[in-house]
Amino acid sequence: MPVSYPVRPSRHTRRRLLAGLAAALVTAGALTGCSGDDGPEAAVEAFLGGWRSGDLQAVGFIQPAGGRVAAGEVTKQLQALAGELAANPPELTRTGEITTKGDVATARVKVSWALPGGARWAYENPVRLKRGGDDQWQVIWEPAVVHEKLESGDRIALRREPAQRAGVLDAAGQPIVAPRPVVRVQVVPGEVTDVPGLVKKLDAAFKAIRPALSPPVDLGDLPKRLKEAKPDGLVEVVTLREDAYRQIKPRIYELPGTRFATDQLMLAPTREFARALLGSVDQATADDLQAHPERYARGDLVGHGGLQGRYDERLRGVTGVTVITERTTPDGKVEPTGTELYRADPKPGQPVKTTIDVATQNAADAALRGQTRRSALVALRISDGAVLAAANGPGAAGENLAFTAQVPPGSTFKMVSALGLIDRGAVTPQTTVNCPKTATVEGRSFKNSDNFELGAVPFATDFAKSCNTAFVALAPKLGPDGLAQAGRTLGLEAAWDLGADAFTGKVSANGPATEQAAAAIGQGTTLVSPLAMASATAAVARGKFEQPKLLLDPAPAKPAPAGEALKPESVTALKSLMRGVVTAGSGSALADVPGEPVHGKTGTAEYDNNPANTHAWFVGWQGDVAFAVFVEQGGAGSKVAAPIAEKFLRGLAR
Questions:
Q1: What predicted TM-score, i.e. pTM, was given to this entire model?
Q2: Taking 90 as the threshold, does the pLDDT of residue 613 lie above it?
Q3: Mean per-residue pLDDT for 401-407?
Q4: Hey, what's the signal peptide range on this chain (predicted)?
Q5: Which residue among 89, 111, 187, 333 is least packed, with the fewest CB closer than 10 Å?
Q6: Mean pLDDT, rounded, for 271-299
């Protein structure tokens, strides 16, 4: 019930009651400066607290003409007037002093509403009060209390205007993701006479698209959706890039019931183009809307995964919003009144500029095209560490293995082991190191691929042919943590600030003799990512470590410091070893690649207790481009990863 007393209590009793009301409101977090005297302050604060909480029973109300209004009715009217903002009551603060003239008082109240998209609509509004015959102050209730332009029957409504989404830019400053034409394949149920036949023909056509759609189009529920839809409705089947649609247009255009609507979506140049790194831009999902109702509305474009997801707020910009009033007409229609209460224009998003080079990325994607196993190819510019390409397969893979895989490097890590050995003076390329079929360390047997043996040969030959047993024999010369130290000089294990998630490696150290032997050939507990190995390879080619660079704007705040220069004699020796892999060793598939000399190292990495289960690797460089190729469960690096590297480099040479 409203606060109203038929018998006027004593001044002491009234002060005690007002103090009790103030204490209750403070406990509820509703007060912003209540006064405990006989003035109207307590009534104002009670009203503001009740407006926020939805409970106005402690407040008395009267109409401008003087008739009483029930608190419950005011609560209902507040909800109705708030309209689309009713679920999020405003912040309310009394400003300045209350002015009193006779039995009428006026308070100034700041009303602040949080709007979708992050905007805030704030204004000051008067709240008038009248002192009744019982000496109690009551709020004069009218719609203008909420906003001076509101009238009875009005409700607040919102009109959202999405901002222009900015693009992810390549190294040349051109949008990678831009509006591109698509075709929406649709079906009118009432025009289809043979549903199974239609599904069969559509399925065959979609499977004929090259490169293959990933994931493939699932038509399993199409018959059910056609049956449940209105005969003259449109059932969406799939949205295709225009080039994919043109491949199969002759096969599907004349099928009964089919329709083809043209549209534009924010897309990369191809389906595969750096997909896992970039992420995607799609309409807001149910999860998006549930997690961020204040940010997204149905139909909004939202970044998912990769850079699009990580920098969604920057790319999306600020949604524009207009606050208007609506009213229900006598025939039940809701129509705008033409009154605008507030407007915040949309603010376009800011682009994200990367170091990605379109030609290099296309070559990397093409090199992985056709791979059925999970795979990655990452390329860096040696001179400045810029990430030129980050490809993942098969197809438009969603996981950025190029940056985040945590897998053993296999024999590609002999590059690091050799650097450590040469730095310590343990070997030179000419040092004779025996390469038997097997080597035993504390009861554990190590062998070479296909059980080959070379006998007593120069270390350069051991490296070129990737002799495991030679490196196992040399492992003690690295000491307990010599391998980790060598890896760190190449940037492994460092804290990189790249602007995207990346695994920089974990190098074995201080293990028992068997672990040291395994680590020397890239096994044991050592783990890397393709990006980490490409960066280490670039460090060898450059002569020192520089953290890879991916984002130019916004530039990462704390990139890892550059490493100290490697010993020139060690770099010269290691470069000769890696050139020998291509000219006379396991990387001979790249010997005739046109252009500057190719340096590299193959790798075949066991990932469980079965020696038959291996990942395929190749790392190397040509000219100013360093790269790493990884194929999960791919087998031998020389047979699987090296040909991919060859295809990549030939693609760059075009």
A1: 0.79
A2: no
A3: 96
A4: 1-32
A5: 333
A6: 86
Query: Is the predicted pLDDT of residue 22 greater than 60, yes or no?
Result: no
pLDDT at 172 exceeding the cut of 70:
yes
Task: Sort strands 120-131 and 301-304 into parallel, antiparallel or unpaired.
Answer: unpaired
How does pLDDT run across 426-447, given as a tens digit for each residue? 999 999 999 999 999 999 999 9
Six-digit token string for 589: 């598939």
| Residue 634 Cα distances to 374, 533, 603, angstroms | 9, 17, 11
Residues 41-60: what's their mean pLDDT? Answer: 95
**Cβ burial 61-71 (10 Å sphere, 16+ → b, else e):** bbeeeeeebeb
Tokens (6 digits) for 405:
């895989």
Instruction: List helix spans (H) across 381-499.
Output: 401-404, 414-423, 459-465, 468-474, 482-489
Q: Which helix (H) or strand (E) holds 91?
A: strand 91-101
Cβ atoms 631, 393 nearer than 8 A: no
Please tell me the predicted confidence (pLDDT) of residue 395: 64
DSSP one-letter string for 190-219: GG-S-HHHHHHHHHHHHHT-SSPPSSPP--
- The pLDDT, as a whole number, for residue 38 is 61
- In angstroms, the Cα distances linking 573 to 127, 394, 452, 477 are 84, 37, 25, 18
C-alpha separations of 162 from 91, 438, 507 in Å: 25, 66, 48
pLDDT at 564 over 80: yes
| Strand intervals (E) in 222-356 | 235-241, 258-267, 280-283, 301-304, 320-328, 334-344, 352-354
- Determine contact, residues 323/341, Cβ cutoff 8 Å: yes
3-state secondary structure of 114: strand
Of 606, 602, 636, which Cα lies nearest the Cα of 463? Answer: 602
Find the helix packing angle between 11-27 and 41-53, rounded to 10°.
30
Backbone angles phi, psi at 464, to 5 degrees: -65, -40
Residue at token pair 């470069």: 575
For the chain, percent of residues with pLDDT exceeding 90: 78
